[in-house]
Amino acid sequence: MENRLDEAASPYLQQHADNPVAWQPWDAEARELAEQRDVPIFLSIGYSACHWCHVMEDESFTDPDIAEKLNRDFVPVKVDREERPDVDSVYMTVCQLVTGSGGWPLSVWLTPEGKPFQVGTYYPPEPRQDMPGFGQVLDDIAASWKDPEGRQSLEARADQWTDAVEGRLEDTPDQPGEAPDSEFIDAAASTAAQNADRVHGGWGRGQKFPQPGRIHILLRAYDRTDNEAYRDVAVETLDEMAAGGLYDHVGGGFHRYCVDRKWTVPHFEKMLYDNAELPRAFLAGYQLTGEERYAEVSRETFAFVERELTHPEGGFYSTLDAESEAESGEREEGAFYVWTPEAVHEAVDDERDAELFCGRYGVVEGGNFENGQTVLNESATPHELAAKYDMTVDDVEERIERAKRQVFEAREGRPRPPRDEKILAGWNGLMVSAFAEGAITLDPEYAAAAEEAVDFCREYLWDADGRRLNRRFKDGDVGIEGYLEDYAFLGRGALDTYQATGNREYLAFALELGRVIRDAFYDEDEETLYFTPTGGESLVARPQELTDTSTPSSAGVAAQLLGALDHVAPEEGFAEVTESVVETHAAKIESSPLAHAALVLAADDSAVGALELTIAADGLPNDWRDELASTYLPTRFISVRPPTEADVEEWTEELGFDDVPPIWANREAREGRPTVYACRNFTCSPPKHDLAEALAWAKSDL
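User: That's the sequence. What structure does it adopt?
Assistant: Structure tokens below.
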């Protein structure tokens, strides 16, 4: 065997192309090789920004002795979980079922048929802290496989585990339930509030992960019920995430998660999906509370994405690594982001400016991180610093901003974290939705980033003739058949771009993606949405993705998307798919709403009905955006149509509709001016030239 990763497009696989391990990609050739040699497959799953993946590579996969064992007794296969979330989903589910937890790197031993019989995550090279040494694990498994009785035991376990994962991922209830009603959002928010950390924000008492779906549930429920506890929990969480080490206070954008309860020290990788979903949560908080800080965080995050994660033609890259080269010359986690007082004073010209910056962000001798360094956290307010230094608040803020610019410039001279430059359709869709919402809420200029990214995906990833979406683009290489998350997230992004711009092309693209979801991912018999398409690669189980993880549930977002598309294409059966999916999984949604946040929101959309804002105009008028920015309407659906009936008929023909959709019919512009019609549940406001009046009607009708 030889290492076959040298031609892989994935940066993660490329990182292992020079290992002495004879890594194979996940393909039929690797599985056939295992059958021919009659040895197990060792499957290692990770991603390029994964810290412990790097550690296990350095400790074990570059070790010639370990490599010899892997190559002699196994067929070693390496998978990028970001490229193959279906493979990751199946075997991560096994890990969670067997061990009660999961994580990356994921280490799984399989029969040649792909059935798992041993599973774990990171293994040290030698036994440590109750963890067995990796070399010894390999020896033990190889010995058991070669022993007839031992092999029989492993194969029996493989059958048992395969049955269990099939049951977990594929099964649906024998009978659908009753879809949650409009009051269920209150119950879901109550659960979120009861489980929240009311001292430090967020959820959990150890590591803190961002949970944007829960924030949307809380804000929506507060808007519906006026229960101030819901607003308070959401605001506390937004405030703590914005103030702590999760947020990059110098360059904008969010890290993956924090390792402590107080949001102080993050795992430093920056993922595109976090920097898409979190601004949407902050923008919702901004609309509801008017808190300018939330808008500022969103603007700074968008600036980071445009500066550091954007392809020259408009698509968005996947990640920035947690590690970069430190002064020692070694790669260290967080090296690009952490500071000492000495480093700040070297970067900032004015002594007082440097002192204020250190005071604001807690940069002290000894630090809060490794080697006496500090992860920036907001530690003192400008008012507190103004009192301490006998200065005005305005002067303090001006000096801190000046220092921040100089710190940023100094940081730009440091070795940068490696960037994973693969472009994933689904993750791009999440970012597109964020920029589209930014265009509506903050600045119409953000629409350009959304449009360019959708155009990139249409140009390089979408096969219009075959009605097929590819998942990955990397340096001109396109591949991997798209999953439900790719169609759902990009479809929502395209639809949101239409709402932000009124451009019919994006509505047409969203409709096409929605049709593929309906035709290829929806199972009429089981009344559910699967993560892989009908006829796709057969794994030991065909997964559904019902729970929110680091990204929202693809089934939940797909249900939301199809429900929204029903407003413009009611004859295509989109709403029926949404309703059946929600009913099929009603019991799970109601028993565990926090794990199913995207499905909770889809169920609420369906129960409440969207607020339709039909706008007859040449695009979304810019002077109406202030009203949209300051009015929280979580079930809002903006449908721009041309001002005249003749142009609407042309749109109808171009979109392939048999008739003018009801949402557009007889809703032309009046008096030659942009006109809005606000409707909910077949009740509409009179035509208005003033959006504020239409929104006031909408709020009063709730």
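The first strand starts at residue 41 and ends at 46.
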